[in-house]
Design brief:
Length: 101
């Protein structure tokens, strides 16, 4: 059984999400997916870290930095930030600090 204050907290959070109504259907799917929101954010973090590592080594592979397309990395970071907004503040702040945002 959920405690009364937990129910109140969840009702408040649902109301906030409904008011924002930004990608609510996507968010519902993520909450229902394996690992929920934390799992989605963890997978995005791993993807961003791998992409950042690959981009940082582009010059070693003979690619000029100005010729590297950062579109994939940027889109992953944008998605990560979008979903991290629904995390508790301490987790969200940690992610933003890691990427200097």
């Amino acid at each position: 059984m959920l405690e009364k204050e937990e129910v109140t907290k969840y009702k408040k959070r649902i109301k906030e999400l409904e008011e924002r109504n930004e990608g609510l259907e996507d968010l519902v799917q993520i909450f229902r997916s394996p690992g929920g929101l934390d799992g989605k954010v963890s997978r995005l973090l791993e993807g961003v870290r791998k992409a950042a590592t690959a981009y940082s080594q582009a010059e070693k592979l003979g690619l000029k930095p100005e010729n590297v397309d950062f579109g994939y990395l940027n889109s992953r970071i944008e998605e990560l930030l979008k979903y991290s907004e629904y995390l508790p503040p301490e987790k969200r702040i940690k992610i933003k600090k890691e990427f200097g945002l």
